[in-house]
Protein: Homoserine dehydrogenase
Amino acid sequence: MNSEPARGGKPQNEKEGDKPAVRVALLGCGTVGSEVVRLLHEQSADLTARIGAPLEIVGIAVRRLGRARGGLPVDSGLFTTDALGLVKRDDVDVVVEVVGGIEPARSWLVEALRTGKSVVTANKALLAEDGAALHDAAADGNADLYYEASVAGAIPLLRPLRESLHGDRVTKVTGIVNGTTNFILSSMDATGAGFSEALEEATELGYAEADPTADVEGFDAAAKAAILASLAFHTRVTAADVFREGMTGVTAGDMASAKEMGCTIKLLCIAERGPDEAGVDSVSVRVHPAMIPRSHPLAGVGDAFNAVFVEAEAAGQLMFYGRGAGGTPTASAVLGDIVAAARNRLTGFRAPSESNYAHLPVRPIGAAVTRYHINLDVDDKPGVLAAVAGVFAKHEVSIATVRQSGREEDAKLVIVTHGAPDANLAATVESLSQLDIVRSIASVLRVEGGV
Ligand code: NDP
Ligand code: HSE
Structure:
């Protein structure tokens, strides 16, 4: 990283006696990028005072030069379609990437970092797929890499994990990190609607994208889980390490069943550290819908909000809450990173480098200890309960509660287990499906918190 004050040609807004401007190349000017431009403009005087030098946008890379940009307060001559050319310019200090996707974003950012430029990015997909390429390039170029906006939008979350909690040992991170799916599940909980109906509402209100696959199938949350786990446990975790199950299978019946038990259902990202069966310290990272009691701090997180619950040995329980998406909230996090990077360039400080010294193995989902809520349609005759209990015993799964309801054709058993390796729980469900007395397995959901 350049530890000298900003270099290159003299910026337009430099006055006699002023520090030279810190020059920003913006890659992307869509939902987030346009708000970054607007906030940079509106808060220019405050930002200058906070940094000790002005920020100057020296170029903006976009895909379509002709696209209407709704009166953004920038000179139209700043726009270019040559992002790599912009990154390579000598008069760029900080590269801000709000385009998204793996390539060409990775090539642009690696180029920027290797040549000592500071990088601010909101690109969760890239960080989760190949964060190593960015961190290695940052180390090679002695450059700053900031990415607060990549997880949970406006919520200051990565900086606490990356800095404030570095004196502690984080044991578990449990989060609602996808606003679209939280809106859908909150709506299903409040109105009794099914998944399709709630998705339709989310689309109409502009929460869900035209193609909601990344959200509802858990890909977006899995990328964020990988980033959180890497920071929390000082270990490189990629999206491929994260067990992922989407929430499209959650039915109105599941939600009603959760309600009867004083619970709701959330799409959770869970990253935890602990010994595996052989006693080896390891991590488990997973994304799936789960039933949680209404008393759990995450149960009350409604609408499209995000929240992340962090447990650490010395700090105890911490909760982070706020808007996880949207142009302006996300731009707030991007701006915070730009200010940090700009200050560092003026003072010669550096962002904390990657901490991956722990190299913990990642446990497969089968070895993760989870709990299941199983809803069975069963025959109504003597011995049913004993037969079902026998299956749990065979797979060494302990039953926490059993509830029986209905008669004859409507006979149902609702079973909640104690914690057991997920593989044992899955094998139990498979064996139950083979029993003659089990007419159907109406639903299987994982359970988190003290249900
Ligand atoms: P948008 O699709 O709204 O904007 C993408 C921008 O990138 C557009 O300006 C587009 O140009 C530009 N672009 C696309 N391809 C290229 C290319 N090859 N060369 C140059 N420019 C290109 O995305 P968002 O603003 O929503 O998201 C940006 C990033 O922020 C993503 O990584 C996303 O995951 C992340 N993020 C987004 C959040 C949100 O709420 N939107 C929340 C948190 C993170 P053009 O304008 O010409 O189309
Ligand atoms: N699609 C994401 C969400 C955007 O719904 O939370 C923020 O990453």
Summary: The domain at 158-324 is CATH 3.30.360.10 (Dihydrodipicolinate Reductase; domain 2). The pocket of NDP (ligand 1) is lined by residues 28-33, 61-64, 67, 83, 98-100, 104, 122-124, 149, 153, 325-326, 330 (CB under 6 Å). The two ends are 50 Å apart (CA to CA). Residues 136 and 416 are 45 Å apart (CA to CA).
